[in-house]
Structures are given as C-alpha cells and as structure tokens.
Amino acid sequence: MFADSAKVYISSGNGGDGHVSFRRELYVAAGGPDGGDGGKGGDLIFEVDKGLNTLNDFRHIRKYCAGNGQPGSKKRCHGADGADLVVKVPEGTVVREAETGKVIADMSYGCTREVILRGGRGGKGNMHYATPSMQVPKYAQPGKPGRGLYVILELKTIADVGLIGFPNVGKSTFLSRVSNAKPKIANYHFTTLQPVLGVADLEGTDGFVIADIPGLIEGASGGAGLGHDFLKHIERTRVFIHMVDAASTEGRDPLNDINIINSELESYNSGLLDRPQAIAANKTDVFHGTEEDTVISLLREEFEPKGIKVFPISAVSGKGVKELLYYVKGLLDKTGREQVIFEKEYREEDMTFPDEPYTVEYNEKEKIYVVEGPRIERMLGYTNLDSEKGFSFFQKFLHTSGIIEELEGMGIEEGDTVKMYGLSFDYYK
Questions:
Q1: What is the rounded CA–CA span in Å between residue 18 and residue 245?
Q2: Bridge-partner residues for 11, per DSSP?
Q3: Which residues of 206-271 form beta strands (DSSP E)?
Q4: Which of 178, 75, 63 is closest to 126 using CA atoms?
Q5: In 293-308, which positions are buried (b, 16+ CB within 10 angstroms) versus exposed (e)?
Q6: Largest Cα span, the chain
Q7: 39 Cβ partners below 8 Å, 6+ apart?
Q8: Strands of 196-200's sheet, edge to edge?
Q9: At residue 215, does pLDDT exceed 60?
Q10: What is the pLDDT of residue 348?
Q11: Cα dihedral sign for 411, 417, 418, 419?
Q12: What is the predicted pLDDT for the residue at 77?
C-alpha cells in the first residue's frame, strides 16, 4: 500500500550526568575532585534514501529515539556519547511540527541530511567546580535532556510536469505512452491511487519528469474524496498538463472540467494558477465526422486567449502527443529551473534546563541549612545585598532557580538559618 503521510514521535538522546568523586590513592591525602563529564546525547537525523518512494515504513514504527549519553565516572573518565539515530526518508519528504504545522525541514533537492533534534549536552563532573573557597565540591552538573516532539511527514512528489484531470480521462494511458512508467490502466474511476512518475525522453533535447496525479474531483481542495492526498503532490511541479475527455465518453463537459480543476487549484494554493498550463484534449480517436473540430474550437476559443494552448491528442494512437511534449518542454525552458522548496519555519528552541548544579543540605550538628553551587557563589560575589534592590534580586534568583522550593520540601520553618558561603540568612515566608 502506498503511504504519503505519517505521524511519528521523534526524540534526541539525554546527556549523561556529570560524576561526583574524589581522588583516593595510597599516600595521597585529601585528593581533589576527579568526577568526569557525562557523554552527549545522540542526535535525531533525517536522511534522504533515493531507493525509497513511500512512507510505508512509518506506518509500522511510530517512535524514533536516539541513544542517551552515559554518565561520567571517577578518575576524570568521560561518559560515552549516545548513538545518533539516522531516519531514512524518500526524497521530497516535508517534515512538519505536528501541533503547529510549521515546516522543520524539506528533504528535497540539496537537502539530503538534516539534524532535526540535537542531543542533550553532557553534564560537567565535579572536577570543574573546585575553587579557592570550595575545594571539595559535592555537586556535578546533570546532563541536559534531549528534545522530543511529534512530527508529520508528508511526501510531495518531485516532478517537472503535473498531469492533472478528472478520473478516467486517460492520464495513465498517456504516461505509459510517453515514458517507461507502467501505471495500472483500467476503465473505472480512481484506477490510479498514488502518484506515478515517468521520464519523457524527447529526441534532440533533454527529457523531463511527469507525475500522473490521481484523479481530482470537485471539492477536492476542501478535502472531498481524496482531495488533499492528491493535491499536495502538485505543489512542486512547474507546468501543468490538463487532460480532458474531449469526446465526452462519460457525458462530461471538458470545458467545465478544466474550470472546475483550476478552481480547486486556486482554492488549495492560489499561487498554482500562476504556473504555465497546456490542455491535452484526449480521446479524439473516437470522434465521428466534424465532432472533433467543434469541441476543439470551443476549447481554443475559451482558453487560448488566456495563454493556455490546446492540443487534440489520442493517448491510445499517439496522435498529437509529440507536439504536446515539445511545447511543454518549451514552457519548462521558459520558466527555468526554479525549485519549489518549503522554507523552514520551525527551529529547535532553547529550553530552560538547570545549567549549573547546586546542593541543599541540612547540617544536623549546627542545625542550619547549607546551600552551595558555582552560580550561587558568583551571584553572591556581584550582588550588593546591602541594597534593597540587590537583596530583592537575590531573593528572586532563589525562587526561580528552585532553591526555595527545595528548602521548603526539606521542611524548613520560619526563623531557620540558611548558610551560603560564609553568609547566613534567616528564612521567612
């Protein structure tokens, strides 16, 4: 079964925690801190695999997580980094953040490998926190958590030309004639339930890629039928070939069909109507007498003044097909090789995690609470606690860093003493 969209959960790895330990060797008294750093968490990476053409694999596996970094250890040993996870996707896959729909990455053209989520940084061991005033740091930095989010994967076909039209007008037959593609062909609606790519080779010039876009219906832009499933595949195409049943073998009005489909294109994405178009008036092999002249004349009167050229063709016999292809190649040459790329709208945001460690302990002997940590030491060094503004700033820091909450969790009561690097404070709510 062809799958062109999927929702999956992805996450990068957590960073490993820094280690708390002290050098302990024979004949070495009071060895200093030697706790090593934690390893970095693995990255979550998307990579294009040109051998893939569907998102089928993502229907069976819905969760992709990179490896976690390992914690540091004694003797300044660094924890192992977590393994990166490389997720293979087909070329043309657009990755969107599920909640907002914003584009994270467009895996097409030059973008073949993209780091979607970076792993958490490993925490520093206590060997980094020795200072003249704190020679025995009993804390280490925790590793930063990885990032995780749900993403929507959408496969948008990469082709030069989009072959569009109502069901059963002969698109699959046309593609099988002009390329080596082998689409399923039958005389009923929705024979084609997935985009089919074919390369049209033209003598004396470069070929181009045509996508047979499954049959549209009225209301497709609003989600009727398989509308959105089909319409997303035309967003990258540079030229459209409208195929209509000129002979009205099923009673359809070819002129009205073109207007309906253009209306659906405009409703889905107004910019689509700015792209060059040509009309393939198919099934002329079943006309009788002057019927062909009448129908083709009506189509030309309606659309050629708008710059849309009409070609009477027969996908079965090959009549008029070559002329149409050379004309479309000329349109492609005029439009240039501008690539339709979906710009990045969502970037991995910096999240607030505890960046520097601290300890909160209760000294049973002195009946006081002791708070220590490198950021606290620096904060006391440059904050004027004698001023009302400075003291208020320091109190706010204690609240936002979680220190007050931790003290309250340990059962501190009003009037209890908190000691920070030689300074003592009485606690009051």
A1: 71
A2: 65, 148
A3: 208-212, 239-245
A4: 75
A5: eebbeebbebbeeeeb
A6: 111
A7: 15, 16, 69, 70, 71, 72, 78, 79, 80, 81, 82, 122
A8: 196-200, 208-212, 161-164, 239-245, 277-282, 309-312
A9: no
A10: 63
A11: negative
A12: 92
